[in-house]
Amino acid sequence: MTALRLVCLIVVVTIGLVHSLDIPKIKDVPLLVKTLKNLNRGPPLQVMTKRVNVQEKWITQKLDNFDASNSQTYPMRYLVNDEFQTEGSPIFIYLGGEWEIENSMVSAGHWYDMAEEHKGVLVYTEHRYYGQSVPTSTMSTDNLKYLDVKQALADVAVFIETFKAENPQLSNSKVILAGGSYSATMVVWFKRLYPELIVGGWASSAPLLAKVDFTEYKEVVGQAFLQLGGQKCYDRIENGIAELESMFANKRGAEAKAMLRLCNSFDDQNDLDLWTLFSSISNIFAGVAQYQSGNDISYNCDYLLSFNDDATAIANYVYWAWGMGTCIDARYEGSVEYYLWGVDNFGASRPWYYQTCNEYGWYQSSGSRNQPFGTKFPATLYTNLCGDVFSSQYGNEQININAANTNEYFGGMEPDVENVYMTHGALDPWNPMGHGVEQGATLIANASHCADFGSIKSTDSEEMRASKEKLAGLVRQWLA
Question: Which stretch is the leader sequence (predicted)?
């Protein structure tokens, strides 16, 4: 692929991403937030080959499932495709995560194909505080106390019981769940907390271990570029970022700022600004690796290797990927201001960042030397952001306690569940936080995050097809 063609590809992907994420247009999205949005978007849209009648419906949920004295409620949105429904149809529920639900997941793909085989009803539930299922008038820190995975799992339990009660044909139906990424984690944990409500589940790319300093993530991103792009590409990334770091450290900051097209407001003497910049650089590579398929990485590497020197290659690559502004605003304070603006603006990613501070961590840091993205984005960047955005109570110590509490409650790497099929891409940067082959999960060679939701097709790798067929066999057993 030519350098020009790749630049066009990056630009198209960036513009399409901004559109698909429905980013609020009245406030520019700061650099770090924009790259994090990309990493936390929903599963890949499925290609719909026919018109399907998907119904949008609502269910009344309690605001607090664990406080009998609180009578407040909110409307939770869900989507239904009942084209195959008959008496006793099994219920195939795809769980929404930190995104807005959409029609394709109940209209096409492997989940849809299995529902068709078993004459199942397809449902897609929306997670509280995401999409249109917003329980409170603002997303103030106080209002976000009703946002955690225990509440969301209780919502799913209430949904299953209510949906069956309101549909006489389905009163005795078996239920299976599916999810991707965070919602895959929910599938596992739902089976742990409410085993009697479902007969099985499919968890694609489920992180199970809450961890504040998630150093392994960028290691796998680096391995993806090494394996699929080659040693020269890996070295170019490592050397180019190291050179940019050195320029800032050795009084050549003005030169580095010019190369990266940074706005004058960027303060290269401020650690938080530098950490924000280098985290955002690394996240561009992470976004490519996390969602790669086909020759994506080799195309990107072709572009990187088309330049004569390392730092110039990195600077030009990230500038195009960031959207080619007149200048790039990489200030830390911009992220703080944006998340604070999100108190009254619901499209601004504030809920998921709150969940990371309150439950998981999963901050993808530069704490490992076994990755090519430098040393300038410690987990401290993200824990500082928690405190500045939500409350001073969210300091590093408290966030570590929160993650430890999550692991204790849900079992960490030992969730103790049966009849849940876990799959991971072998090059998915999230897979170190989930089960491996030794725990019974399937790792799909060269695949990445949530890569296995498509229908079985001739272009699937041998490993991908085998995993999809194994799942189809398990679903037949669960529904027998």
Answer: 1-20
Whether 472 and 455 have beta carbons less than 8 Å apart is answered as no
Is the per-residue pLDDT at 13 higher than 70?
no
| Domain-wise residue ranges, the chain | 3-43+217-405, 55-211+420-479
Q: At what angle do helices 182-193 and 149-166 cross, to 10 degrees?
A: 70
Residue with the two structure tokens 């994420």: 21
pTM of the predicted protein model: 0.93
Could you tell me if 237 and 288 are in contact, meaning their C-beta atoms sit under 8 angstroms apart? no
Neighbours of 96 (CB within 10 A): 31
Got the DSSP string for 199-231? SEEEEES---S-EEE-THHHHHHHHHHHHHH-H
Dist. CA 336–CA 321, nearest whole Å: 22
Question: Can you tell me whether residue 470 is helix, strand or coil?
Answer: helix
Higher pLDDT, 51 or 374: 374
Superfamily of domain 55-211+420-479: Alpha/Beta hydrolase fold, catalytic domain (3.40.50.1820)
Q: Are 367 and 378 in contact (CB under 8 A)?
A: yes
| Beta bridge partners of residue 328, listed in sequence order | 262
Q: What is the mean pLDDT of residues 230-235?
A: 98
pLDDT at 19: 33
Amino acid at 422: M
Q: What mean pLDDT comes out for the span 378-386?
A: 98
Q: How far is CA 189 from CA 72, 179, 418, in A?
A: 26, 11, 11
CA angle 348, 350, 351 (to 5 degrees): 120
Rounded Cα distance between 419 and 476, Å, is: 12
Q: How far apart are CA 241 and CA 369, in angstroms?
A: 13
Rounded Cα–Cα distance for residues 409 and 189 (Å): 10
Q: Is 135 helix (H, G, I), strand (E, B) or coil?
A: coil
Instruction: Fill in the amino acid letter for 87.
Output: E
Which one, of 273, 132, 289, lies nearest residue 224 by Cα?
Answer: 289
Count, residues in the chain: 480
Sign of CA dihedral 184, 385, 337, 151: positive
Strand locations in 105-146, DSSP E? 121-125
